[in-house]
Amino acid sequence: MSGFRQHQVNAARVMVVGCGALGNEVLKNLVLMGVTHIVAVDFDVVEMGNLTRSILFSKEDAENRRLKVDVVAKRLRQINPSIEIKTICGDISYDVGLGLIRKMDVIIGCVDSRWARYCINRLAMRAGVPWVDGGIDNLEGTARVFAPGKNCYACNLGPEGLKDLSRRMPCSGIIRRHELAGSVPTTSIIASVIGAILVQEALKLVQKDFGTSLCGRMLYYDGEHMTVRTAEYQAYDDECPEHELWTPIKETLTDATLSVNEALTCWYKELNTTDVTLCLTNDCFVDYVSRRDNDERTFVMRAGRDVEDYLEHDRALRGISTNAFYQHEYHHINADFPYPDLTLSQLGIPQEDIVHIVADGIDHYLELSNR
Known about the structure:
Elements: H1 6-11, E1 13-17, H2 21-32, E2 37-42, H3 59-63, H4 68-79, E3 84-89, H5 98-101, E4 106-109, H6 114-127, E5 131-137, E6 140-146, H7 153-163, H8 171-180, H9 188-207, E7 217-222, E8 227-232, E9 249-251, H10 260-271, E10 276-279, E11 286-291, E12 298-302, H11 307-312, E13 325-330, E14 332-333, E15 354-359, E16 362-367
Parallel strand pairs: 1-2, 1-4, 2-3, 4-5, 9-16
Antiparallel strand pairs: 5-6, 6-7, 7-8, 10-14, 10-15, 11-12, 11-13, 15-16
Helix pairs in contact: 2-9
């Protein structure tokens, strides 16, 4: 292709969030186009419902409920044994560090909820990294490109979209809902079409001046009636906190395995102060919950986890109604925090993250050590 620079594509670092039908097509196309540095993120396992629209999954994978990230890594290495692929079995909301995000050249979102897109957008904007978003349903699909300083997913949501952020249904739930209705949630055809467009737009961002980017517009593809159109999609409010660029970023000797007490002690020395507060800015605060009777029991958990699911898997707490608990929320962690032995990881801070520290009233952004 005229103007295509293969060496830039080979060197590009691309993160793909979501390894379902759309993620399969995106990952496959990235490898076929010569991308050799990939990070794949997903928390789900392969199910039978995935097999009719996911080229990298097999019946054996579904029968053994293998992790999607493990399966795609294995199959992509079969396509190109020389690729470097890092996998994260986790949720983009809490398990992917901003320090890793800022090493990427582009992020491709293949997710199925507004909340997941919102989280990708927040991380990408803070790190100054562009991202590409895709959505599919039956024979319809959309593609959008967001870039710091140009357009923001959160700014484009509007009031109704912001209200709907908390609603979340993973691919497996969507599949079951459609099966009960006697229909299918999507097809391999639309996954192929939109997946190809997402990779095409990502490679334009990697090469910067190759082709015309979709940034600031939304492409809508209707396969049933064979129509394609684009619409303006470039809202960007300067006051929106979700695209606040975190800078400058400094390195710290702390890592996510350290306790709160150990981390604070390290930051006292590094910042030459005794007044340090860790701000939990990703809604990863710790919940403290206790029973309202004489037999008081307590447990701690980070926000974002399902309380009922947590109780069901804890023998000591199983069977207790959530109505028997109340909670305290901690958005700021300092020397007064009642659980100093909890690790940063237990607070919901992942490895390679960047933490927001306030010391003597001054903001600091510290990148955790990756050890």
